[in-house]
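Work package 3, deliverable 3.1, input record:
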Amino acid sequence: MKIVKILKNSFLILAACLVLSACATSKKSTGQMQGDVYTGTDTVEYLASGVPDRVFFATNESVLTTASRETLRKQAAWLRKNSNVTIVLEGHADERGTREYNLALGERRANAAKDYLMTYGISSDRISVLSYGKERPVDSGSNPLAWSKNRRSVTVKAN
Amino acid sequence: MIRILFILLFLLLPFKSNALIEVDITRGNLNPLPIAVSPLSIDENSRKNFEKILKKKNIGSEISIVVEKNLRTSGLFNPLNKDAFLQTPDIANIKPRFEDWSLIKAQALITGKVNFNDDKLRVEFRLWDVLAGKEMMALAFTTVPTNWRRVGHIITDKVYERLTGEKGYFDTRIIYVAEEGPKTKRIKKLAIMDQDGENNKFLTLGNELVLTPRFNPTSQMVTYLSYFKNLPRVYLLDIETGMQEVVGDFPGMTFAPRFSPDGKKIIMSFAKDGNSDIYTMDLENRIVQKITNHPSIDTSPSYSPDGKFICFNSDRSGYQQIYIMKSDGTNVKRISFGKGLYGTPVWSPRGDLIAFTKLHKGKFYIGVMRTDGTGERLLTENFYQEAPSWSPNGRVLIFYRETKTDSKGEGFSAKLWSIDLTGYNERLVDTPTDASDPSWSSLLSN
């Protein structure tokens, strides 16, 4: 009995250690980021069940990541089912760039999302694009995690 | 807005001698020139009249305070404490006792007189070289009383020009974006103020996002970006009448506007399908011309003062860099080759330099380089700063700076700052609210 109890306790301690160390590493090195692309769902809203409204980008990039493509495929499927819905793609940049360049970058990001939706059969008539540059951050932090949440294209229902 | 209504009445003894004092503005403010600004003298009758109209007890002293503050801010002059002045303003204006002024170490002296004349404000002033014991300049102006601050600015411009050999920048205004509210929901309004931060006025209500206002160098027109009805477009605004109109009929976002040096064209970016190119629109015949044609981001265009060249920002090399080209879009040449990213190039009104923002290793810099990209010089480093705008004489840059927020995302602020081309004399420009995107006007009077 006693031995079992000791074993049990040490197991618990071991498990706790594992959890703690996992927390420590994930917080320090990646958080909810992969490279410098945000992969969490902190700020995400859902257009429908299982259809996230936004995709995230790396610094100075407008290339869609694997995760972004998956999100956009879900959006496309939902848009095909709801053919009366029109959308605005709002492109954003983080605060670490000049205002004018960021306006162009936001537009480029939103268009990357638009192009991808179009390859899944969504007509360009249903999509408009609006860049906010760095004017509308979702996270007011001045750190890499906040910036990664702000580099985004958000799909917003327009009607 | 009241148009320029200064009449140069007469020019007393325009004295020119090379032996008199000079201020070297190319070397920074290590030894600002000690100067005494005597309060402008005023007779009791005039004083009472102005007190009634302007609610200022002694308009003569008030004008001299404007001059004094301008001179101090320039970093080139050290206005001396008035308590040390031995001679009364009225007598000093007739005949300064130079021994008294040199005793308090003044090298130059400004004196003057204010009169109430036909409901107008009449001001005369003199600039004296204390060591040589000579009058260097004497001028008189007549204007409406409410223009008294401008009289102070014009006096400063004349003194600055006489002592440095270059035009001043004091009778000018700054247009900028006033900011309020949390970082995630910032409210932005166009605002305008005198160069010294006085007479602040909001030009829009904050109902829509507005960005990057820029003065027309030849008139009181402004071009800026507005998100009116969620359609980001370049607008034109007449500050005097408040009339606004959209510039051109573009099927998408137009942004990064600036005037050509003759004020007749607007140059800007137009974004379509993820690609931004540079366009111009002639304000008279409304003809739109495409200037760049490249599948990269081309933005932040700025003309050379002769209108023959354009510098701009492009990421065609993979990253943001500065390029120049002829104004028809030919002969595109990259000029920035240092480490880091470069943005917001602005051509100096003198023509020889381009000011820019640089991002390198997580720091932002305001710097200048020659128009061929050589001689890069970084003037100031900070967590975030960008968008330099030149004073009309090309000696000072104004830009904005943002603070880093704390771990809770709080403590954000945006402020205007100025710095001399020499890299000295960095100063906070006071504004009633947070501020960004400053643009310096030309001299209002010449």
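The domain at 31-157 of chain A is CATH 3.30.1330.60 (60s Ribosomal Protein L30; Chain: A;).
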